[in-house]
Design goal:
The chain has 330 residues and is of the alpha/beta class. It folds into two domains: 51 residues, no CATH class; 274 residues, 3-Layer(aba) Sandwich (Rossmann fold). Strand 3 and strand 4 form a beta hairpin. Helix 3 packs across helix 10 and helix 5 packs across helix 8. The longest helix has 23 residues.
Length: 330
């Protein structure tokens, strides 16, 4: 079983075994006389993380490291956020075997989550690859906390800028990705569903597909949903200009021709009894009225529960994304 441990903002070590109660493993390529330095580095990292803004860095537990093959957790100083931001990467089994490049799927968690909340989804992708059903991909899990995947009005939370302008270029630089829209999809749940749909439509040159679990996009300029209005007050100060910059429906009007002509694909997965189901139905209709491909899969008795919808349709989502990659990648 392999796991990964970050020991600085620029270095990652692969560990065959690791026990956070004390060193109980072998670091690939590390000589015995270096273990003391290694342990000092770990202590320094622990202090570094403790001093970071805690909501933006959530390192995986020992159990998660052991149970998630290929997992890398990293962090960097975000100029936009003015703090340290964490993210997780799950690398394909074959990543160390050559120089092959891989498509990337960005996975946006729901409200209050972090970069480790949805790592369980990576197991389904690996099983499908091992069964010969899909190609290998790199999975990236950003930390969006309760941001709405927005840049907030006061500049204290700038998650959209962090992901689009900082994290994605960082991933393309640090890993052997296919650094183009043809090799990049974005999936998300709940708050992350809204974020994934916004990103794909707002930045049509960056993504080829979106999968949204637990709802569709909401027309922020015309909603009367008090839950959404509270978010707009808190995050955007109800500023019409900022609402427009975060309104997927605004960007759909602006970009629908390029989204359609580039054959961007959408898949919505929602519980039949999900309170946000209507937003998914409405969004699918809106896309279809503009001749944009969008499928909607409803899951019985799933509510707004990602684990239930993913258990029922996670394989469908991975196959959908693989079909998109297969269609446009060489």
């Amino acid at each position: 079983m392999q796991a990964f441990l970050v020991i600085s903002t620029t270095e990652v070590l692969r560990v065959d075994r690791f026990n956070f109660g004390g060193y109980d493993g072998r670091v690939r390529g590390m000589k015995a006389k270096s273990i003391g330095l290694f342990m000092i580095s770990v202590v320094l990292l622990a202090d570094f993380v403790s001093r970071a803004d805690a909501q933006w860095v959530h390192a995986p537990s020992k159990q998660v490291l052991q149970q998630t093959p290929g997992l890398v957790h990293e962090q960097f100083e975000s100029p936009a956020m003015k703090t340290t931001v964490g993210y997780s990467v799950v690398l394909p089994r074959s990543y160390d075997e050559g120089s092959k490049r891989y498509p990337v799927v960005y996975w946006l968690h729901g409200g209050g989550g972090n970069e480790c909340s949805n790592l369980f989804t990576s197991h389904a992708w690996r099983k499908l690859y091992e069964a010969g059903k899909i190609r290998e991909v790199i999975l990236v899990y950003p930390n969006g906390f309760r941001s709405g995947y927005m840049d907030h009005h006061d500049g204290t939370v700038m998650v959209e800028t962090t992901i689009i302008r900082e994290l994605i270029p960082r991933i393309d630089k640090r890993y052997r990705t296919i650094p183009s829209r043809e090799g990049r999809g974005v999936h998300g749940s709940s708050m992350g569903a809204s974020g994934s749909l916004k990103f794909v439509i707002k930045y049509p040159d960056m993504f080829c597909a979106a999968v949204a679990y637990g709802g569709g996009a909401i027309d922020l300029a015309n909603t009367d949903n008090e839950f959404v209005l509270n978010i707009l007050r808190k995050n955007l100060n109800s500023d019409p200009a900022l609402i427009r910059q975060n309104n997927t429906y605004h960007f759909l009007e602006k970009n629908h021709v390029v989204v359609r002509d580039r054959d961007t694909r959408f898949l919505l997965i929602c519980g039949e009894d999900d309170p946000w189901k209507e937003s998914a139905v409405t969004f699918q209709t809106t896309l279809k009225n503009r001749d944009i491909s969008c499928r909607l899969l409803l899951v019985p008795d799933a509510g707004h529960d990602l684990r239930k919808t993913f258990a029922a349709r996670g394989e469908s989502a991975a196959l959908f994304q693989d079909e998109v990659f297969e269609r446009i990648l060489p």
